[in-house]
Amino acid sequence: MRVAFLGLGIMGRPMAANLVKAGHEVAAWNRTAGKDVEGARSATTPADAAAGAEVVWICVSDTKAVEAVLFGADGVEQSLASGMIVADSSTISPSATRRFAERVKARGTDIAYVDAPVTGSKIAAEAGSLIFMAGGDEAVLARLQPLFHAMGKQVFHMGETSKGQAAKLAMNLQIALIYEGFAEALTLAAKLGVGVERLLPLVQASMVRSGVVDYKAPFLLQRDFSPNFPLRLMLKDIRLALDAAREARVRLPGLEAVEEVYDVAAEEGRQDLDYAATLTLLEKWAGVEVKSGI
Ligand code: NAP
Fold this sequence. Notes:
Layout: E1 2-6, H1 12-21, E2 25-29, E3 41-42, H2 46-50, E4 55-58, H3 63-71, E5 85-88, H4 94-105, E6 112-115, E7 118-119, H5 121-127, E8 130-135, H6 138-143, H7 145-151, E9 152-159, H8 163-191, H9 196-205, H10 211-221, H11 231-247, H12 253-270, H13 278-286
Parallel strand pairs: 1-2, 1-4, 2-3, 4-5, 5-6, 8-9
Antiparallel strand pairs: 7-8
Bound molecules: NADP nicotinamide-adenine-dinucleotide phosphate (NAP).
């Protein structure tokens, strides 16, 4: 298929590369020049990338960034044409997603909009084993199947447009709380004299084991806090979830507490590290370092 891929960050670049590998004709664009994808045409603007494309796939930071690539100067809107599908894998606001979809569809009744945020982080993006949670028409998702297949291993249809984003916020709420529990447990155990090298095998043997711990433990053991999922983006998602909760009159006291940890961690300069670096703030508060046996 002819695909415009917009946003070549930690996630977007390997996703676009996997589309090229699968034989799709890709035009790739990134706001800041210098990020390219081998085998893809480097487009000069979102409108340039989208011209003549069957599918426009977006993976940028946040709600404002999606709005900019769709409707800003030289945005996708200028190149929208009959039969085109816009798919957004960024994690953004569900209510803004509904507005964006309406504006895109207003350009032609047969233009479709799908929200398709992902879970799996950098490793799964590179391996082509992302999990998508999609909102949109079943028939449109079926047309996107070859692209989903090139970038991921599973697609969950969550309902109409914006329901993928709603599910994604519910997913990242859990990741933030699970990791916070793990990091607080490591910190307390270290302060009480039990190091990570002894606690971790116990965690992994028990019902406490989780995918979050499986993913993060090797990085923690190496004290490698380079970004797989930058802290600033997890904080963005925590705020998106709290905003959505306020709109829906839902209380999330656990997530509100975790937001404070992320706020301070970001204020103190950890925003571009992985969100796993919230551990270092807990360590600082406790006056202890979770030791590695490696
Ligand atoms: P990233 O590495 O920070 O990349 C962000 C991308 O967005 C870059 O290409 C950036 O362009 C672009 N961008 C930012 N503001 C823009 C604007 N105003 N206009 C146009 N482009 C703009 O982020 P990422 O990790 O790839 O994440 C991308 C999305 O996937 C986010 O919504 C994130 O929440 C979600 N996500 C990430 C992960 C993960 O583990 N990393 C997992 C699941 C979902 P520049 O190069 O010019 O800055």
